[in-house]
Amino acid sequence: EPEVTQTPSHQVTQMGQEVILRCVPISNHLYFYWYRQILGQKVEFLVSFYNNEISEKSEIFDDQFSVERPDGSNFTLKIRSTKLEDSAMYFCASSPRFYNEQFFGPGTRLTVL
Amino acid sequence: DAKTTQPPSMDCAEGRAANLPCNHSTISGNEYVYWYRQIHSQGPQYIIHGLKNNETNEMASLIITEDRKSSTLILPHATLRDTAVYYCIVRASSGSARQLTFGSGTQLTVLP
Question: Which among A40, B69, B100, B107 would be 20 to 30 A from B22, CA to CA?
Answer without folding.
Answer: A40
